[in-house]
Amino acid sequence: MLDLQHLRTFVVMAATANFTRAAKELACSQATVTLHIKTLEREQGALLFERNRFSKTNILTAVGKTAFDYSIRLLALADEMKAAVRIW
């Protein structure tokens, strides 16, 4: 089951292309970012990032780009739902 926090981590990771920078931006550990990304990859059955250990940059795979687009939409819907139920 998709976890919104994992999707948020994924979106920040895609924007920063670096586990350490993503962790700093999310105010969590690098291990947490790694766990969230690996969990998403396991759930989706595909690598979301192409990892380069030498440059320490991580670029989205084709699957990752598709997952990124859906993640943005899902997070926007979650925010929209929060705003809608606050009215009640």
Walkthrough of the structure:
With 88 residues, this protein is mainly alpha-helical. The chain has a single domain (4-87), classed as Orthogonal Bundle (Arc Repressor Mutant, subunit A), CATH 1.10.10.10. It is built from 4 helices and 2 strands. It has helices spanning 4-16, 19-26, 30-44, 62-87; strands at residues 49-52, 57-60. It has a two-stranded antiparallel sheet with strand order 1-2. Helix 1 crosses helix 2 and helix 1 packs across helix 3.
| CATH class designation | Mainly Alpha
The neighbouring-strand order within the major sheet is 1-2
- Gyration radius, to the nearest Å? 14 Å
- Total domain count: 1
**CATH homologous group name:** Winged helix-like DNA-binding domain superfamily/Winged helix DNA-binding domain
Note the quaternary state here.
Answer: single chain
> Count of DSSP E strands?
2
- Integer average pLDDT: 95
Give the helix/strand class: mainly alpha
Helices, by number, come to 4
The name of the CATH topology is: Arc Repressor Mutant, subunit A
The largest sheet is: 2 strands, antiparallel
pLDDT < 50 stretches: none
Question: Can you tell me the overall shape?
Answer: globular
Which architecture per CATH? Orthogonal Bundle
| End-to-end Cα distance | 28 Å
**Strand proportion:** 5-15%
Order of helices and strands: HHHEEH
